[in-house]
Amino acid sequence: xxxxxxxxxxxxxxxxxxxxxxxxxxxxxxxxxxxxxxxxxxxxxxxxxxxxxxxxxxxxxxxxxxxxxxxxxxxxxxxxxxxxxxxxxxxxxxxxxxxxxxxxxxxxxxxxxxxxxxxxxxxxxxxxxxxxxxxxxxxxxxxxxxxxxxxxxxxxxxxxxxxxxxxxxxxxxxxxxxxxxxxxxxxxxxxxxxxxxxxxxxxxxxxxxxxxxxxxxxxxxxxxxxxxxxxxxxxxxxxxxxxxxxxxxxxxxxxxxxxxxxxxxxxxxxxxxxxxxxxxxxxxxxxxxxxxxxxxxxxxxxxxxxxxxxxxxxxxxxxxxxxxxxxxxxxxxxxxxxxxxxxxxxxxxxxxxxxxxxxxxxxxxxxxxxxxxxxxxxxxxxxxxxxxxxxxxxxxxxxx
Length: 400
Ligand SMILES: [Zn+2]
Known about the structure:
Strand order of the largest sheet: 3-2-6-16-17
Radius of gyration: 21 Å
Bound molecules: zinc ion
Oligomer: single chain
Mean pLDDT: 93
Helix content: 25-40%
Distance between the termini: 13 Å
Structural class: alpha/beta
Number of helices: 17
Low-confidence stretches: none
Number of strands: 17
């Protein structure tokens, strides 16, 4: 048993001064030590010059894109996807594995202990498991144009291989327009956790509602049929049975107030990746409105291919700047909650139930839960806002 007496503790997204915590070291996973939280009480000794927090939750990530540097390419969303697909095909398996390891290492250094990881090829499952980072692995299904081209069996065998290294894993559709309708329908009937990129740009609504725009013309050039259905993407996903509480929606930039209501009612969660959205010139996601509607939102670093450096504090600052630029600001405490307790709900709380774990984890310094802990070395910081402004991977140290 050990009393930790930090300067301040991040509790449910808020920096609280004058508290200390009793922990008992539990199990170790890779480089990460888990602690059982036993008791919290007012400070009784001299505080250590650092802050204590649960690690950050990276709600949306692609470790395998680490070596694909496109974030300064100036490409818009759809051109970027096409270029990314091209560059992916030039990489060999060894490159992919090495990139996943580097990206997992940088996530760790940035204080990330839990990830919603989209995986297409091999590498991220092993990298996460060796580092000890937890989370969920979404094995991406992309069968673009018709189910006869479906790689479902192939993807399923990838999932089986990856699950040997990382048990919290399931098949997941990449995006509404990159996955055939019959495959999406299949996902709607099952009840495993999924994460789907959606409403990232205006192109997707244009494509499904009017069969117009770059997605539509690219498909026509390749001889594929229209998928016009007159429905906005969120309504379409709802009809397919995909909107519910086991679903994480990634990006959610181009949505209207009806879409937000529909998401809130369904219990689906959202991963917000502001740096990636900005790079690809996507609309700014309406996070204020989503939170006000009761939607749980997490923050995703996505990948260096669209977000730049792996630095969780940089992403938190981007969340703040993006919300301010929309004239719909977020409180520092909301951003820190999205980074920790609430973010975990978008990649975690439901999954404990799905994975039939006996004791669900609460991603907070709460008595009764077993979690990893990080020290944030910013001795003069006293407020949540300062913590977000001044933090960097250099201030992070993992508790051992
Ligand atoms: Zn993504």
